[in-house]
Design a protein that fits this description.
It is a single chain. The protein is an alpha/beta fold and about 500 residues long. The protein is about 60% helix and about 10% strand. Helix 11 packs parallel to helix 15, helix 13 (about 325-350) runs antiparallel to helix 19 (about 475-495) and helix 17 (about 425-445) packs antiparallel against helix 18. The radius of gyration is 31 Å and the shape is elongated. The model has no long low-confidence stretch (mean pLDDT about 90).
């Protein structure tokens, strides 16, 4: 939530079509140009008037100035009142004002007319500053208007661009905001299209006054208060259910395999036998199948809870991601993943940490004793989906509703690390857990951390199975540093595009 909000007037607070287009029609007629279709004059809504006459009707500067004067001749008496306020605007302004936000108007329309319109619709009281162009032709560009509005809004205090939104319906509003280093919010219910706003790289886009209000007020909603015990139970119930059902399924599979192994002969793919053919254990393939079934059962057991929590989070965050992230951000996330997975594994290996954990060595031996395809499906597909449903889908989203992103990242990642049960995987899982939570928050889509988790597991599993991960050339400090720098550089560029901290 930001405290300082600058609104465009035409196409954002009010619908000025009739007044503006009729006055443009009047001015064109005075210049010897007849234009009976008011719809064709909609491009005049938003940008500076003089430039529009020059652009759309190829007038010289002198002719355009004369047309502006004829326009104002009719506008000041009639056109200014041929206007409609968008439904829901007064209620939205009242809600924003009640939350202590500082509101301003930054319009390319002359200030005198802006104030007149705001008074006419009885919404002037909500705005701390009202800035427009001047009748003498100065301060017509939107960046100049925004600059003056910021100056008046902050007064003697330093301007805080990261606390400001510029809200408008045209690319000119976005361009004016960018010129002053503030984020822009585009509205498509005005006279700018979704395509125009996307092309101008508007930071956020909403489609209605209702969505705009929800976006600007997000984080201020009165959430249902939960007691500490309720919050703990909210996290503990799905976790315990997941672990219980996973272990139950593994034990049932163990019983099934034991029955089959003692009832039939052979099946070396699954069973280890002594010289007499007696069952003495299971192969890595059997253990992997048990693990896969266990994770699937755990995922199914919390599926209903996860769908509800993920769906609620998606709806709450939808307004932050209407525009969608550029493809370049997905590429950077892939670069971070490709750098982080080998880099972290190599760092742990070079520090000798795996040798300190017998539990980890047993887990590793089990994971890599199955045939490659079976192990790959288990650890790169089934396991990531199940774990993401629990740790990002439920635990992270529940934490996110009661605390800031940074704290949610750390706590959910700590849960993820401790869940693995040994120091080596715990350290690695904590670091990867931070990345997964960050990716979820950044892109607003649950399937992004799922894809990253799958890719990370697939990469680690493939490197280990092919022997690359144990080669002397690969396991070296230069290679480790190279991958970590790749991950760090990718993360730096990604966070520059959208700062979450």
């Amino acid at each position: 939530m930001k405290q300082y909000l600058l609104f465009d007037l035409d196409g954002t607070l009010t619908d000025p079509k009739e007044g503006i287009c009729t006055c443009v029609q009047y001015a064109l007629s005075a210049m010897g140009i007849e234009e009976p279709d008011l719809d064709k004059l909609e491009p005049f809504i938003g940008p500076p008037l003089k430039g529009s006459f020059q652009e759309f009707y190829h007038m010289s500067e002198e002719q355009a100035q004369a047309a502006v004067e004829k326009y104002r001749e009719r506008f000041q008496d009639k056109g200014v009142f041929e206007n409609k306020i968008y439904p829901g605007i007064p209620e939205m302004l009242q809600a924003l004002n009640s939350k202590g936000m500082f509101l301003g108007v930054a319009s390319s329309k002359p200030t005198v007319f802006v104030k007149q319109i705001l008074e006419h619709f009885q919404i002037a009281r909500y705005f701390k500053v009202v800035v427009g162009s001047e009748l003498d032709g100065t301060r017509v560009n939107k960046d100049e208007v925004v600059a003056e509005a910021l100056k008046q809004l902050f007064g003697d205090k330093p301007v805080e661009p990261d606390q400001v939104y510029m809200i408008g319906d045209r690319r000119f509003d976005t361009e004016g905001a960018k010129a002053q280093g503030v984020e822009s919010v585009g509205v498509t219910y005005g006279y700018g299209s979704m395509e125009e706003l996307k092309e101008s790289k508007t930071d956020y886009i909403v489609r209605s006054v209702e969505e705009l209000q929800k976006f600007l007020l997000r984080g201020t909603e009165e959430a249902r208060k939960l007691t500490p015990s309720q919050r703990i139970w909210q996290l503990a119930l799905p976790f315990l259910l997941f672990i219980l059902m996973r272990n139950l399924a593994v034990n049932m599979m163990n019983m099934l395999f034991e029955f089959v192994g003692t009832s039939v002969k052979g099946w070396p793919f699954l069973f280890v036998r002594d010289e007499t053919g007696t069952l003495v254990g299971y192969t890595g393939n059997a253990v992997t199948i048990m693990s896969m079934v266990g994770f699937a059962a755990g995922a199914i057991s919390i599926g209903k809870i996860a769908r509800r929590v993920i769906g609620r989070a998606k709806e709450e965050n939808r307004l932050l991601h209407i525009k969608g992230e550029p493809k370049a951000d997905y590429v950077l996330l892939a670069v971070v993943t490709v750098g982080a997975v080998p880099g972290l594994n190599l760092l742990l290996e070079l520090l000798g940490i795996p040798e300190l954990s017998a539990t980890y060595q047993a887990v590793q031996e089990s994971q890599y004793s199955a045939v490659f395809l079976l192990g790959f499906i288990s650890y790169s597909l089934v396991t990531p989906i199940a774990e993401e449903l629990l740790f990002r889908g439920i635990i992270y989203n529940c934490l996110r509703r009661s605390m800031k992103p940074g704290a949610s990242f750390v706590i959910s990642a700590a849960f993820f690390g401790m869940y693995h049960g040994n120091s080596v995987q715990g350290i690695y899982a904590f670091a990867i857990g931070l990345l997964l939570a960050y990716a979820y928050e950044y892109f607003g889509c649950f399937w992004v951390p799922v894809a990253i988790h799958m890719a990370a597991n697939a990469l680690a599993y493939s490197l280990s199975n092919t022997g690359i991960a144990t080669s002397a050339v690969f396991v070296s400090w230069p290679v480790c540093i190279l991958f970590l720098v790749l991950a760090g550089g990718g993360f730096y560029l990604l966070n520059r595009h959208k700062k979450l901290f």
